[in-house]
Write a structure and sequence with these properties.
The protein is an alpha/beta fold and 430 residues long. The protein contains 16 helices and seven strands. The chain folds into two domains: 60-206, 3-Layer(aba) Sandwich (abc type-2 transporter like fold), CATH 3.40.1710; 215-419, no CATH class. The longest helix has 30 residues, at 267-296.
């Protein structure tokens, strides 16, 4: 038969040794090129997004609360709270940190909605507390409070805390220089004069607490990754399984090989069947993910019904996108889908490393790559009381957009192939 002759002519029949196969240099070209490109691109993508988060900072949002209502010190036109606020804002470049002046209530709301990575609070009476230091009657040091937001991820919250503490420390040193030069400081005991050099106590508090079973703010990222991986892997399993059952691919498990009779079916109906199976399996995978992470491992997860609905839609949309790409690109579809849903999406997710701390290329990818959209919604549900303005509204919107795009792209391509008569190759049997 033709198939057998082709195999013998190629020198790859049953009697061919592995050594003869490996000596065919042309066999190496495609795998070598693809493997090299994938390894190089993945290395650049993944490591390029995480190596220098501090150097890549771009307008990280931090709240600045000045509640000081005291009168300005003698000879000055502004109270110390206003002076500290101005010094804090000028302590970092505008393109790195976006300080937002607001009231304490607004700052607390911004932390609770995930709009701020942290906050610096100047309390009421700050000017009066500092002034009492020069009289030697202060019961305790004046205080500046740094508020963290662990729901924004451990790295994002840590970056904001470090920036805020450094700015507060610089403000304390500046105030100390003014106090130690004052006439009142000369009459104080040496211990008090030493206190005046660094007069402000900078304390760190949690601005918006999250559960103790939240992975320090990383549970949203890993849960999102589970959803995307489940949708991706399940869709590829369905893709290969349906092709095998319909006779368009051979089935091989260990030493067992099977080849089913080819079923006459066009590309559009094949894609419809694969998408239908993907939808059904998404119910199972989503439920099992929640059972494992919440029921077995005890992950903190309020709003269980909403979380399941959002998780199912996210997993389904990823699965449909994978099926559409496989239908459009054929044999390399799984590689293309891997780059779309995993390779490009992970470093631009903004979940482990904030988008404000990655190079601009990743911020661009984050505007449409799926993991960022799903992570925003999951984070809002897990940490921010399912508030729409915490990212849940954006998550739903982008999932709906991805769902429609997957259907339009997938069926447009298969209908085009079918109309052009580009039917799938039917395996030849001996």
């Amino acid at each position: 038969m033709a198939t057998g002759s082709s195999a013998r002519d190629a020198g790859t029949g049953p009697g061919t040794s592995a050594g003869r196969v490996l000596r065919r240099w042309k066999l190496w070209i495609a795998p070598a090129v693809l493997s090299a490109l994938v390894s190089l691109v993945l290395s650049l993508l993944y490591m390029g997004g995480i190596l220098t988060p501090a150097d890549s900072l771009h307008r990280l949002p931090i709240a600045l609360v000045n509640a000081d209502t005291g009168a300005p010190p003698p000879g000055q036109d502004r109270n110390l709270g206003t002076q500290v606020s101005a010094a804090v804002v000028s302590s970092t470049p505008d393109d790195q940190v976006r300080w937002q002046r607001m009231s304490r209530d607004r700052a607390q709301d911004a932390l609770a909605s995930g709009k701020m990575f942290g906050a610096l609070v100047i309390p009421p009476g700050f000017t009066a507390d500092v002034s009492r230091l020069t009289t030697g009657q202060a019961a305790e040091r004046p205080r500046l409070t740094v508020l963290t937001n662990p729901g924004m991820g451990s790295l994002g919250s840590s970056l904001a805390q470090r920036i805020t503490q450094r700015a507060a420390g610089q403000a304390s040193a500046s105030i100390g220089r003014e106090l130690t030069r004052s006439q009142a400081a000369a009459d104080l005991a040496p211990g008090f004069r030493l206190l005046l050099a660094d007069p402000v106590d900078v304390r760190v508090e949690v601005g918006h607490p999250i559960g103790s079973h939240s992975g320090l703010g990383l549970s949203a990222f890993y849960y999102t990754l589970l959803l995307v991986l489940a949708g991706f892997i399940s869709a590829n399993i369905v893709h290969n399984g349906v092709d095998t059952s319909l006779g368009y691919a051979d089935g091989e498990i260990g030493p067992w090989h099977s080849r089913h009779p080819t079923v006459p079916i066009d590309r559009t109906h094949t894609l419809l069947a694969k998408m239908g199976m993907t939808a059904g399996l998404s119910v199972l995978t989503t439920t099992l993910i929640m059972v494992a992470t919440i029921g077995v491992l005890g992950m903190d997860a309020p709003h269980l019904v909403l979380l399941w609905a959002f998780s199912f839609c996210a997993c389904l949309t990823v699965g449909l996108g994978v099926q559409a790409i496989n239908a459009a690109f054929g044999g390399i579809g799984q590689l293309v889908a891997m780059f779309v849903f995993i390779a490009l999406a992970l470093p631009s997710s903004g979940a482990a490393v904030p988008l404000e701390a990655v190079p601009g290329f990743y911020r661009f990818l984050g505007s449409f790559e799926p993991i960022r959209q799903v992570a925003d919604g999951v984070r809002a549900i897990l940490y921010f009381d399912a508030r729409a303005d915490a990212g849940l509204a954006r998550g739903w919107t982008m999932i709906a957009f991805g769902f429609v795009l997957a259907l339009l792209f997938g069926f447009a391509m298969t209908r085009y192939y079918d109309r052009r008569g580009l039917h799938r190759m039917v395996p030849k049997h001996e």
